Amino acid sequence: MTKRILVIATAIMTTMLALVALWQFRIVLVYLLLSLVIAATFRPISKSESRDDLRTRILLVLQYVVGVIVVGLLIFIVGRFLVNDFQQLTQKLSSDSTWALPSWLQSPSMQQALARWLPTPDNLFKGIASQPSVALSTILGLTENIGSLISGLVISFFLSVYWSINQNHFERLWLSLLPADKRKRARYVWRTVEAELGAYTRSEIIQSILAIILLGVGYRLIGSPYPTLLAVTGAIAWLIPVVGGVLALILPLVLGLLTSPQLALLSVLYTIVILVILQISVEPRLFRIQQDNPLLTFIIIMAMADAYGLLGVIVAVPISVIIQILWRLLVNDRIVTETVVQVSDLKERQAQLQAEIENMPEPPPLVVSSMERLTGLLEKAEPILPSEPPAEPHALPRPHNLPG
Description:
Layout: H1 2-24, H2 26-41, H3 54-95, H4 108-117, H5 121-129, H6 132-165, H7 167-175, H8 180-221, H9 227-238, H10 244-259, H11 261-286, H12 294-308, H13 310-359, H14 365-381
Helix pairs in contact: 2-6, 2-8, 2-13, 3-5, 3-9, 8-9, 8-11, 8-13, 9-10, 10-11, 12-13, 13-14
């Protein structure tokens, strides 16, 4: 009895120490997860299974170099236009004394209600400028978050290079810790998660770039004074599950009202059209996660944002994707396999019973009718249920809708 108590106490203490260690190194785990996401995104061009040959390493380095150059140029170009839009918006807020409203809202009662509940643009700007301590603390907090985000991305980037080059070595290392009969299944799950996560990340990046380009060009053509600001905020809001579409429409509506109601209406309609096109035409061609659960993603985003700020928001979506892929591989597929085994076993028993009934001199009518009903039920269920258990591929599977 005493030995059992000691074993239980030791297990509890070991678990608590492990949880404390994980909490102390939680930021390292976030960097590691982000590096795995980056490595999955920059999958090697070579189809070889080996990651140790010189050709594959050169291809990896070229991929990372080209990716960094392209992303850097996009950030530089978009950043220049974004700064210009911020300057124009600041000047607009500091000079306008009224909100541009539709004609049906320009009644005296509506103007009084609006003045009572919402300050004018110039008063709003003056109120912000009159509290330098609050503005300074906000700017410092935003700068700190952006600085930690950039440093985390840089660290994760170099970790992802190291992980990509030595991936086979790391796989053999952690697979050696598992029982021999579990290694094949674990390797299959690991590589499936890596492939689908990389495809999902590339899909989101491509959709964001397309959203920025299409929205920015469209806003500029319809005459919006802040096209880049609206395009960037719309693309970022679109990535947020559940409420992303609504958030992407708020800023075009509000900033459009500063110029004219017609511009606000055109901006909102154009935003809806572009987002619908991305959702219906572009996303299914790139990658669509099976059994997507946006509510789970939204909850994880809120939790990670509270714990890690902007870096947590970036990591939250991959965590949700990994959880949903693992649920499909480890739970849903297993349930389907067990169901198929039970149906096949039932059909075998039916055949045995049918043989026994045929050997009977005069089978009872109740038994004959029951077997006929059972045969009919199995025939109706056979088109719905899979005919055989899903086979586990020996090689790395190609995810559904994977581009290229």
